[in-house]
Write a structure and sequence with these properties.
This protein is an alpha/beta fold. The chain contains 6 helices and 12 strands. α3 crosses α4. The radius of gyration is 17 Å and the shape is globular.
């Protein structure tokens, strides 16, 4: 059973601005930037595109025409922007239930087990943090964004239904979304059907889809990558070998 990075909600999500429509001009702008606009939504005044990417109206205005990376298939990828190091990334788990909290602890441990230029540290301070992880809405999966100005993206939402699959699946989704926060793209961004069963090319977009050296090259695909677009109900929550290589290369 596969669930996308951001599953379609089965009932009304109070965080969605359902009363507002996205203008044709905005949708065309995303298309011009080579985003897939299928299922685009407004979430708290920002645009949710391609399942789990949050883009603010201000960021959309500032985007220049993209450089599309062509050719490589199945390798690990990063955005143009990364997190400045060395540093400690303080992660706040905000009002999480026990399963979600355990999954976050395991996700943080996944990163701290690697030889990276940053350390992730769980914090309970609501006034001093770098990434806030919360759980609201409906369905399963998660959503996050990409780094800016050398800082990680600030917010991760892992939908409450994810907890029903157990701690290991929550760990997987938490690790995946934190990966976006530090600059990782989907391993199968060029063909979402690899992990989702359907879907096409997400596009390089202005964030970039830059191949990370040392990870598989065509025709090989890392089917164990934690950064695949969709996940199963039986995930271990662990990085693949090439995920580790990719992160240690970048950081």
């Amino acid at each position: 059973m596969f669930t996308s990075c951001e599953e379609e909600p089965t009932e009304a999500n109070p965080q969605l601005d359902g009363s507002e429509e996205i203008s044709a001009a905005v949708i065309q702008r995303f298309k011009d930037l080579h985003f897939n606009t299928d299922g685009i939504e407004l979430v708290d005044g920002n645009y949710l595109v391609e399942g789990d990417m949050i883009i603010t109206p201000e960021a959309l205005e500032e985007m220049s025409d993209p450089i599309i990376v062509e050719g490589p298939k199945g390798e690990q990828y990063r955005t143009y922007n990364l997190v400045s190091t060395p540093r400690t990334i303080r992660v706040l788990g905000y009002q999480l239930n026990s399963t979600m909290s355990q999954g976050l602890d395991r996700a943080i441990a996944n990163y701290n087990a690697l030889n990276l230029g940053f350390t992730m540290q769980r914090t309970n301070s609501t006034s001093s943090w770098d990434i806030a992880v919360q759980s609201y809405g409906s369905g399963a999966g998660g959503v996050a964004g990409f780094p800016s100005g050398g800082d990680p993206y600030q917010y991760v939402n892992v939908y409450p239904g994810t907890a029903s699959y157990g701690v290991s699946v929550v760990e997987h989704v938490m690790t995946h979304e934190l990966g976006h926060c530090v600059g990782l793209r989907h391993t199968d961004w060029f063909n979402r059907s690899i992990s989702c069963g359907s879907g096409g090319n997400e596009g390089g977009s202005s964030y970039g889809a830059v191949h990370i050296p040392g990870t598989p090259s065509q025709p090989n695909v890392d089917y164990n990558s934690i950064m695949l677009s969709c996940f199963s109900a039986n995930e271990s929550g662990n990085f693949s070998n090439y995920d580790r290589i990719a992160l240690e290369y970048l950081y």
